[in-house]
């Protein structure tokens, strides 16, 4: 990266907030690609703003079209975590890990559990219900579809 590009990256590192990796803070750089890392969305947002301001101050521009991975819609946090096709495998993996944990917990508390129940909607479309649960003798039951948008470790 050119000298002036290094200036912009150092401005982000000077902020000293967020994830530290090998003694450096929240930025991975390779050629002209920059990846922000952070412990929360606010830190990433702040550091991105610092990088944009520092880049502009030295005459560098960020092309917004090159910052998007999913071009089907606006990449809001809700989109990236909830519906972006690039995250589908992770979302499904988290879903399949948590569903049996929830079912076991409910069962240990006296609930009857049915998992992965096939159903047909009023429109005729086929649906898979993740968990149907009820307590024997009670007049109400629950349909559960667990979703884990992201993990923190």
From TrEMBL:
Pfam families assigned to the protein according to its UniProt record, in alphabetical order: RVT_1
Reverse transcriptase domain mapped to chain residues: 25-77
Cross-referenced InterPro entries: DNA/RNA_pol_sf, Rev_trsase/Diguanyl_cyclase, RT_dom
SUPFAM superfamilies in UniProt: DNA/RNA polymerases
Designated name of the protein: Reverse transcriptase domain-containing protein
Species name: Periplaneta americana (American cockroach)
